[in-house]
């Protein structure tokens, strides 16, 4: 049988084409591959499931051996968040025209350029910054690139990084900045906020996140911006855009670069496959020049009233004094940018504000609900979406909860659990978690 | 009764030789121009709990100036934009050479959607099925490359190259050989090899092509030494030419104490024919969105896979999936370089790539490779028959070929890019990214196994037509496109800081205020 | 089209004559007469017309300023271009012999100083004549227009020529559009200047006819840089920009150890090294420079450099490199790939021996490693089409000693390994 994905596997057409080429067999095309490099046996792979029903049965068998967050009650977050994904987001990003396109010119792929331009434009409004990149891989990469940009911009090779950042992200930052930029950690204070004790002219930037890894909203952004600027350094802030309907954007308190992950804006959790990163700055040419990413902008066409698009400041990567620590540009996460644009267009300014208010309120409600049976950390700080609790044993608590159909949170260490609450968690869901934890705590105390 | 004069008759006349295409042209405004205050696209749950008053230091002062639209209009706007985009499903997409544009089976999208509600930090016991898919795909890619272990964490091909560079750096550091600070690559290896090596702090030595278009092995001999960290090479290169002396290249680098790293972005024509490890490579990477059919998604999310020999396995990014015969678990390799991206990988694409290989098997993969090579050699004959088109360095090619319009361009003043834009008027395209720009007026065609002979005939006929047009009426070609969503763009404001508009707010500030 | 933009056109009607007649160049009245006698027909006028047509199709109505007769007027007419004739050139219907002189070209250029862009059709010899006129304008303190060559000669090795006549017209149109638009096109060093410096090289034709290739660097002209839109505003997925002259200079400076004398050969690339050091080194001469202090990281404004001596003679150079550590920094001159012996004869065999010393090791290139830095962009090497770089120091033994593979710096932290041969062996063998 001719494989349904390979039209020219059909023997008749194959022979016709070989004749047209003047070749005896396809072997002739491999004349340059020496005999001793040839694999003279079939690959050792499972027997194929060419018939679609057979493949579906096989895949369903595998995928069925999972219990998703829609089957359990999940409070998992820590970088991947269970926000509601509007049906329209899925509808748009599953359109074959977007899903299967790659990198056409701004003519035949006008739609991609406009959709991504609109995405960066809406992000720009949310962030109050004029320049936003076409998405990079994820929030890790966005932070790494933002700090490298700060290093190149200032000509300095040291950054102060808040310790209230996820361990995995720090791992990535250490590796990615390794040859050029040294990371100096800034400790977390009692209040769950980043504390800067020492800073001088040798630093390129201060980096902090808000909400940070503990869900704590950093309130001293302005102070840190002033400190950084007094020493010729930049303030780089990692912010989840979903919080910005209610929280002040980093630019409002003086940040020079904002960055982060956009998974919250319309991407499913997808076992970690929904990530994309943003980087934003003001329209300040020397800083814009440091973007390794593509920037899309409006250009006129021959016809009045038509919007054309293209790459802004395309040749910026060739500037000599910026060749140190230059980064690559590649296929990253454009479709998630388009999706996040759809999300922001659906939400509008008031949807974003209402969503933020709901999350703030439910987060506080959950903290209060759990406070009776476990120790809630940083209780006086403003929290958004996540908070940490201290328990006798993270693993024991989470195992007991899992037995009761609840994914109770992410263990940050043996005694600390991070709990995540979004607009998808009803008050009843939170009450159920609190009740189960209270019950488990009571049992454990009696043991 | 119809009394109108008949104006056409049956049978319907045959189709003309070239398709009368026109791209959707909705003349769609920018979404901000569709806004009317008070409208909403989706509703949000009420808090159901007391509101939290924010301190002024963190409270947003003014609502963001996002557009306000009702849901039908958001859908209509974005569906119009989608129609103004030429996806692979809609065209003979052989023109984005080096990118391996192939059919992404629809059924695999369903499998991808099935992981939507899985959180990456769920307990292993609750995600055994998806961990098994990771494990099985890793084992299949290990067999296809001959490598010992594979990481599926990187988010793209370039990210996989970077992960490989990071492992190379960690490997030498672990052996106390931090003086190895040079990476050798070739002119027609994918440029991300040089770029990633530079980011990781290496100095890059690029070997130029010799008179046959292959990297000069004598130059390699002179380049290797105690500072050599690695050779990072694509094969076949972006020219489509397979380097027959690749084993010697690898051996020379090994003799100098360096590692050999194989960029398998161009693996589509050699699946089941030859393997990275069998040529002596220590590391390699695949682009799952190229060779293994996951959709390109307008430029990601993609997925990359790093394959390594047993010696390099302890350095892999973590975690990787382990299997003890009964259960799948996550473990971090002993000397792991750490994370290259959040969590385990772009899971939707891992699932898709796995399903794709499962639908083909060993024989099917070989048929993919052979058909890709057949299609390329067939298309090459047709392209080289067009006056003004040429291919440097003869006609030995595997799965793609880089061509030149130099002759046509010198004769007519029409550039390759303009020919590509004019071709889009007929519903096909080619892209113009041809680093390192050594071939003048380039275009790179890669007709993967997804295209039929009839497709290739049509594509060649369109290019032949446009080439002929360039001779007869160069200004017509230079003025293209005509049948596209928009007309010819004047890019000059894009480079002017006073005029450029990378967001709508910048546009409004600079041009509408 | 914007009002007031004017494009000058000068045609060297005899350019290219010698090639057709197998005379390897057309310089000098004797050769031109010989070519005409062999039945050669002039083609420069027709190639100029082709460029003008390409210009007009993009910028209809562009007004040309040109010289009478075959020196431009005929081409303008053939292309249907509105044009004005300059008066100051004698209406030199070229003499009965049909020959114009270099002086005619120079006078025509001098008369067109007011244009926004000057197109000239010819070869490397014509480019030299244009360069001479440009220098004269500069000396007089007059405005110097940017120029662009329409390739029409036998020898077209200079960087001031477009790829083809049509390409010249297209580039000219793009350039004048830029000057009338809002986008910045000034050569103010902001980095997005629409003008670039291009070398003018020429072969010594007498030597060429004897089978000896001798490119000489004569100077540099300001030409419109091909904007991104023409070289391709890439919609690509990847890649860094190719190495730049500035990147090369930065790499050289990052390798310089303070106190070591560095000999900068002629050329725009080596002059960029001087600029990176904050020094005004010469384009045509050989200069000796040093880095003054140990700076691990080169500051943006250029590392501190010291000009030890500018435009030195062979004897001076020999004195400066004797007895101390020194490094030669040479660029590739012209299209043949010469590194030594063309335009840098000051770097004599005795200078070479003094710098390279008697470094041990027989491995190819090992002798020169670290003491000879060769600079070239990847494009320049690619243009060699796989042919080797050439050394012609005047001492064939020394040339053979240098033969092998050398590291060529192509950008910041970027290099290639490239073959270099003794010119005597490569050209005679």
TrEMBL record, chain A:
<dbReference type="InterPro" id="IPR049315">
    <property type="entry name" value="GDC-P_N"/>
</dbReference>
<dbReference type="InterPro" id="IPR015424">
    <property type="entry name" value="PyrdxlP-dep_Trfase"/>
</dbReference>
<dbReference type="InterPro" id="IPR015422">
    <property type="entry name" value="PyrdxlP-dep_Trfase_small"/>
</dbReference>
<dbReference type="GO" id="GO:0004375">
    <property type="term" value="F:glycine dehydrogenase (decarboxylating) activity"/>
</dbReference>
<protein>
    <submittedName>
        <fullName>Aminomethyl-transferring glycine dehydrogenase subunit GcvPA</fullName>
        <ecNumber>1.4.4.2</ecNumber>
    </submittedName>
</protein>
<dbReference type="InterPro" id="IPR015421">
    <property type="entry name" value="PyrdxlP-dep_Trfase_major"/>
</dbReference>
<dbReference type="InterPro" id="IPR023010">
    <property type="entry name" value="GcvPA"/>
</dbReference>
<dbReference type="GO" id="GO:0009116">
    <property type="term" value="P:nucleoside metabolic process"/>
</dbReference>
<keyword id="KW-0560">Oxidoreductase</keyword>
<dbReference type="Pfam" id="PF02347">
    <property type="entry name" value="GDC-P"/>
</dbReference>
<feature type="domain" description="Glycine cleavage system P-protein N-terminal">
    <location>
        <begin position="5"/>
        <end position="434"/>
    </location>
</feature>
From TrEMBL, chain B:
<dbReference type="InterPro" id="IPR049316">
    <property type="entry name" value="GDC-P_C"/>
</dbReference>
<dbReference type="GO" id="GO:0005829">
    <property type="term" value="C:cytosol"/>
</dbReference>
<feature type="domain" description="Glycine dehydrogenase C-terminal">
    <location>
        <begin position="404"/>
        <end position="471"/>
    </location>
</feature>
<protein>
    <recommendedName>
        <fullName>glycine dehydrogenase (aminomethyl-transferring)</fullName>
        <ecNumber>1.4.4.2</ecNumber>
    </recommendedName>
</protein>
<feature type="domain" description="Aminotransferase class V">
    <location>
        <begin position="174"/>
        <end position="292"/>
    </location>
</feature>
<dbReference type="GO" id="GO:0016594">
    <property type="term" value="F:glycine binding"/>
</dbReference>
<dbReference type="Pfam" id="PF00266">
    <property type="entry name" value="Aminotran_5"/>
</dbReference>
<dbReference type="Pfam" id="PF21478">
    <property type="entry name" value="GcvP2_C"/>
</dbReference>
<dbReference type="InterPro" id="IPR000192">
    <property type="entry name" value="Aminotrans_V_dom"/>
</dbReference>
<dbReference type="InterPro" id="IPR015424">
    <property type="entry name" value="PyrdxlP-dep_Trfase"/>
</dbReference>
<dbReference type="InterPro" id="IPR020581">
    <property type="entry name" value="GDC_P"/>
</dbReference>
<dbReference type="GO" id="GO:0004375">
    <property type="term" value="F:glycine dehydrogenase (decarboxylating) activity"/>
</dbReference>
<comment type="function">
    <text>The glycine cleavage system catalyzes the degradation of glycine. The P protein binds the alpha-amino group of glycine through its pyridoxal phosphate cofactor; CO(2) is released and the remaining methylamine moiety is then transferred to the lipoamide cofactor of the H protein.</text>
</comment>
<dbReference type="GO" id="GO:0030170">
    <property type="term" value="F:pyridoxal phosphate binding"/>
</dbReference>
<dbReference type="GO" id="GO:0019464">
    <property type="term" value="P:glycine decarboxylation via glycine cleavage system"/>
</dbReference>
Automatic annotation (TrEMBL), chain C:
<keyword id="KW-0808">Transferase</keyword>
<dbReference type="GO" id="GO:0006741">
    <property type="term" value="P:NADP+ biosynthetic process"/>
</dbReference>
<dbReference type="GO" id="GO:0003951">
    <property type="term" value="F:NAD+ kinase activity"/>
</dbReference>
<dbReference type="InterPro" id="IPR002504">
    <property type="entry name" value="NADK"/>
</dbReference>
<keyword id="KW-0418">Kinase</keyword>
<dbReference type="GO" id="GO:0051287">
    <property type="term" value="F:NAD binding"/>
</dbReference>
<protein>
    <submittedName>
        <fullName>NAD(+)/NADH kinase</fullName>
    </submittedName>
</protein>
<dbReference type="GO" id="GO:0005524">
    <property type="term" value="F:ATP binding"/>
</dbReference>
<dbReference type="InterPro" id="IPR016064">
    <property type="entry name" value="NAD/diacylglycerol_kinase_sf"/>
</dbReference>
<dbReference type="Pfam" id="PF20143">
    <property type="entry name" value="NAD_kinase_C"/>
</dbReference>
<dbReference type="Pfam" id="PF01513">
    <property type="entry name" value="NAD_kinase"/>
</dbReference>
<dbReference type="InterPro" id="IPR039065">
    <property type="entry name" value="AcoX-like"/>
</dbReference>
């Amino acid at each position: 049988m001719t494989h349904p994905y390979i039209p020219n596997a059909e023997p008749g057409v194959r022979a016709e084409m070989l004749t047209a080429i003047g070749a005896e067999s396809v072997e002739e095309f491999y004349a340059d591959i020496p005999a001793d490099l040839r694999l003279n046996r079939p690959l050792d792979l499972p027997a194929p499931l060419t018939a679609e029903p057979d493949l579906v049965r096989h895949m369903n068998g595998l995928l069925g051996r999972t219990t998703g967050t829609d089957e359990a009650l999940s409070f998992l977050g820590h970088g991947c968040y269970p926000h509601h994904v509007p049906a329209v987001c899925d509808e748009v990003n599953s359109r074959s025209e977007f899903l299967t396109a790659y990198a056409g010119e701004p003519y035949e792929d006008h739609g991609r350029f406009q959709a991504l331009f609109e995405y960066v434009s809406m992000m720009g409004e949310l962030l109050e910054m004029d320049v936003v990149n076409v998405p990079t891989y994820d929030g890790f990469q966005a932070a790494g690139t933002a700090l490298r940009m700060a290093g190149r911009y200032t000509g300095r090779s040291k950054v102060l990084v808040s310790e209230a950042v996820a361990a995995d992200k720090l791992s990535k930052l250490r590796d990615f900045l390794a040859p050029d930029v040294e990371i100096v950690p800034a400790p977390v204070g009692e209040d769950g906020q980043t504390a800067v004790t020492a800073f001088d002219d040798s630093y390129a930037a201060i980096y902090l996140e808000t909400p940070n890894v503990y869900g704590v909203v950093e309130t001293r952004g302005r102070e840190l911006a002033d400190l950084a600027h007094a020493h010729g350094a930049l303030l780089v802030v990692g912010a989840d855009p979903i919080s910005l309907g209610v929280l002040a954007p980093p630019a409002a308190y003086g940040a020079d670069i904002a960055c982060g992950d956009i998974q919250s804006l319309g991407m499913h959790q997808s076992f970690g496959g929904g990530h994309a990163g943003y980087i934003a700055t003001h329209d300040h040419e020397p800083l814009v020049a440091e973007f390794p990413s593509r920037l899309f902008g409006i250009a006129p066409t021959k016809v009045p009233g038509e919007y054309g698009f293209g790459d802004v400041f395309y040749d910026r990567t060739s500037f000599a004094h910026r060749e140190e620590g230059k980064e690559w540009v590649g296929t990253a996460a454009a479709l998630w940018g388009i999706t996040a644009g759809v999300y922001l267009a659906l939400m509008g300014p008031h949807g974003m504000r209402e969503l933020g208010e709901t999350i703030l309120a439910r987060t506080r409600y959950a903290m209060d609900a759990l406070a009776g049976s476990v120790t809630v950390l940083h209780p006086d700080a403003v929290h958004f979406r996540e908070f940490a609790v201290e328990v006798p044993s993270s693993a024991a608590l989470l195992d007991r909860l899992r037995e009761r159909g609840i994914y109770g949170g992410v263990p940050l260490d043996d005694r600390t659990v991070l709990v995540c609450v979004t607009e998808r968690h009803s008050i009843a869901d939170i009450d159920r978690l609190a009740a189960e934890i209270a019950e488990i705590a009571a049992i454990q105390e009696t043991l | 009764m119809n009394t109108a004069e008949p104006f056409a008759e049956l049978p319907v006349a045959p189709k003309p030789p070239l398709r009368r295409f026109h791209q959707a042209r909705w003349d769609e405004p920018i979404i901000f121009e569709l806004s009317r205050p008070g409208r909403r696209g989706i509703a949000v749950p009420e808090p159901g709990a007391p509101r939290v008053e924010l301190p002024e230091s963190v409270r947003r002062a003014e609502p963001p100036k996002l557009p306000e639209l009702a849901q039908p209009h958001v859908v209509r706007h974005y569906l119009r934009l989608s129609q103004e985009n030429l996806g692979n499903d809609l065209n003979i997409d052989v023109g984005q050479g080096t990118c391996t544009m192939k059919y992404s089976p629809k059924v695999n999208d369903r499998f991808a959607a099935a992981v939507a509600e899985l959180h990456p930090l769920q307990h292993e016991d609750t995600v055994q099925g998806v961990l098994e898919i990771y494990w099985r795909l890793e084992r299949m890619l290990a067999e296809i490359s001959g490598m010992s272990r594979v990481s599926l964490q990187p988010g793209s091909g370039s990210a996989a190259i970077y992960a490989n560079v990071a492992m190379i750096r960690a490997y030498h550091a672990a052996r106390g050989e931090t003086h190895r600070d040079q990476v050798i690559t070739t002119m027609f290896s994918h440029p991300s090899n040089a770029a990633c090596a530079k980011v990781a702090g290496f100095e890059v030595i690029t070997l130029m092509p010799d008179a046959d278009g292959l990297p000069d092995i004598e130059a390699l001999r002179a380049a290797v030494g105690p500072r050599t960290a690695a050779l990072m090479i694509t094969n076949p290169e972006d020219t489509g030419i397979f380097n027959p002396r690749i084993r010697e290249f690898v051996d020379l680098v090994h003799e100098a104490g360096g590692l050999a790293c194989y960029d398998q972005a161009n693996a589509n024509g050699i699946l089941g024919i030859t393997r990275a490890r069998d040529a002596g490579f220590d590391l390699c990477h695949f682009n799952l969105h190229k060779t293994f059919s996951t959709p390109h998604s307008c430029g990601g999310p993609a997925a990359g896979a790093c394959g390594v020999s047993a010696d390099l396995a302890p350095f892999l990014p973590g975690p990787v999936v382990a299997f003890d015969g009964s259960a799948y678990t996550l473990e971090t390799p002993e000397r792991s370089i750490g994370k290259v991206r959040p969590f385990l990988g772009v899971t939707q694409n891992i699932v898709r790539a796995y399903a794709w290989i499962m639908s083909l098997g060993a024989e099917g993969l070989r048929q993919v490779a052979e058909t890709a090579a057949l299609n390329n050699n067939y298309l090459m004959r047709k392209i080289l028959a067009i006056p003004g088109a040429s291919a440097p360095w003869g006609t030995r090619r595997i799965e793609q070929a880089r061509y030149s319009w130099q002759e046509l361009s010198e004769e007519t003043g029409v550039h390759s890019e303009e020919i590509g834009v004019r071709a889009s008027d007929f519903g096909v395209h080619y892209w113009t990214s041809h680093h390192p720009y050594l071939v003048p007026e380039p275009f790179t065609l890669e007709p993967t196994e997804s295209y039929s002979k009839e497709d290739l005939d049509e594509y060649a006929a369109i290019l032949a037509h446009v080439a002929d047009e360039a001779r007869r009426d160069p200004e017509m070609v230079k003025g293209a496109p005509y049948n596209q969503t928009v007309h010819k763009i004047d890019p000059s404001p894009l480079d002017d800081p006073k005029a450029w508009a990378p967001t709508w707010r910048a546009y409004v500030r600079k041009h509408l205020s | 089209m914007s009002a007031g933009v004017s494009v000058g056109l000068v045609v060297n009607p005899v350019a290219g004559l010698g090639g057709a007649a197998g005379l390897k160049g057309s310089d000098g009245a004797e050769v031109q007469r010989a070519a005409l006698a062999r039945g050669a027909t002039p083609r420069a006028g027709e190639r100029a017309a082709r460029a003008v047509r390409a210009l007009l199709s993009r910028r209809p109505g562009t007004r040309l300023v040109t010289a009478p007769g075959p020196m431009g007027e005929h081409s303008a007419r053939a292309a249907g271009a509105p044009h004005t004739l300059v008066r100051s050139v004698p209406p030199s219907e070229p003499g009965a012999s049909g020959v114009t002189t270099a002086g005619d070209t120079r006078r025509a250029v001098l008369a067109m100083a007011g244009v926004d862009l000057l197109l000239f059709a010819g070869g490397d010899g014509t480019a030299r004549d244009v360069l001479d006129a440009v220098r004269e304008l500069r000396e007089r303190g007059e405005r110097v227009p940017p120029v662009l060559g329409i390739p029409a000669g036998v020898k077209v090795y200079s960087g001031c020529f477009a790829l083809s006549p049509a390409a010249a017209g297209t580039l000219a149109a793009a350039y004048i559009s830029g000057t009338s638009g809002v986008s910045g096109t000034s050569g103010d060093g902001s980095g997005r200047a629409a003008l670039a410096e291009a070398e003018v090289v020429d072969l010594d034709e007498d030597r060429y006819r004897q089978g000896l290739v001798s490119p000489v660097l004569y100077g540099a002209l300001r030409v419109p840089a091909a904007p991104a839109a023409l070289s391709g505003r890439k919609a690509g997925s990847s890649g860094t920009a190719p190495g730049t002259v500035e990147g090369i200079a930065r790499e050289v400076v990052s390798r310089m150890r303070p106190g070591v004398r560095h000999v900068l050969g002629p050329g725009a690339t080596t002059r960029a090294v001087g600029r990176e050091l904050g020094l005004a080194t010469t384009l045509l001469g050989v200069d000796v420079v040093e880095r003054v202090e140990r700076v691990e990281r080169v500051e943006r404004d250029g590392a501190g450099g010291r000009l030890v001596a500018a435009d030195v003679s062979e004897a001076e150079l020999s004195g400066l490199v004797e007895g101390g550590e020194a490094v030669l920094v040479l660029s590739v001159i012209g299209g043949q790939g010469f590194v030594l012996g063309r335009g840098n004869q000051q770097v004599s065999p005795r200078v070479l021996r003094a710098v390279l010393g008697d470094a041990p090791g027989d491995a190819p290139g090992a002798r020169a490693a670290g003491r000879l830095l060769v600079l070239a962009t990847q494009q320049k090497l690619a243009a060699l089409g796989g042919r080797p770089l050439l050394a012609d120091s005047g001492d064939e033994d020394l040339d053979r000693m240098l033969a092998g593979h050398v590291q060529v710096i192509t950008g910041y932290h970027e290099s290639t390994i490239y073959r270099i041969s003794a010119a005597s062996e490569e050209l005679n063998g």
